[in-house]
Amino acid sequence: CAQRLSQATSRLSGYANLIRFDATGRVVCSANGALPDPNRRDSDWFSRVSHGEPLVVTRASPAQFGADPAVLAAVPAHDENGAFDGAMTAVIRLTSLRPEIAGGALPRDTEVAIADEAGRIVNQTDPLAFSSLAHDWRAQAKAKGAVMFTADDTRGVSRVYAVAPLVGDDLYVILSSPAQGLASWTEVNLLSSVVPPLLAFLLALGAVWIVTEQVVVRWLHYLQ
User: Fold this and answer.
1) For 13-27, 66-80, 169-183, which range has the lowest pLDDT when averaged over its residues?
2) Which end of the chain, N or C, is surrounded by fewer C-beta atoms within 10 Å?
């Protein structure tokens, strides 16, 4: 069991651990080890899974699952008679949604957070990069599939927030990126509009100079 789970996590980017618990909350096996917890059976997420919820996603406790910001996704396991037989859980790092993992599709310095249906932050990569959500964020996210707005973070820095449902209507993912000001726009504009043509011009000039030197100027010297 542990070997198979370890092989699975090695092929799944962003998964910190896979753990199988029995019906009492004890660890049956895990990919990267798991600490014992005598109170796990009474925890909110385990109770919800044992009472029939098909999927529960919540904050992964740093004391139990490591210091890296992560969420715990749990599904119930059943025996051959269909009775509850524990839970299969996955510990997923929030950093797996960062730009360097997402192929550079997100702006630099983008941070990730998970919030519940009331807007309470479940977990986050950087607490200082988030602030309270817009008053109608949930209604807009449900109507449009996602909502974007601009607000100041806890440091007073203007950031752009994007909120979208992650698990039904119970859990939402929030992306926080620095707002594009004049300086950042100028930097992007220079990099995308000025630097490439300038490099192309210099490359063409260098090629013409080399060809002229080798084909024309050298033979003129020979003729002289």
Assistant:
1) 169-183
2) C
Which residues, in sequence order, are CB contacts of 88 under 8 Å at separation 6+? 18, 19, 20, 21, 74, 75, 76, 77
Using a cut of 0.90, tell me whether the model's pTM lies above it. Answer: no
Does 39 score more than 70 pLDDT?
Answer: yes
Tokens 């599904």 sit at which residue? 75
Is pLDDT at 56 greater than 80 in this prediction?
Answer: yes
- The three state secondary structure string of the chain is CHHHHHHHHHHCCCEEEEEEECCCCCEEEECCCCCCCCCHHHCHHHHHHHCCCCCEEEECCHHHHCCCCEEEEEEEEECCCCCEEEEEEEEEEHHHHCCCCCCCCCCCCCEEEEEECCCCEEEECCHHHCCCCCCCHHHHHHHHCCEEEEEECCCCCEEEEEEEEEECCCEEEEEEEECCCHHHHHHHHHHHHHHHHHHHHHHHHHHHHHHHHHHHHHHHHHHC
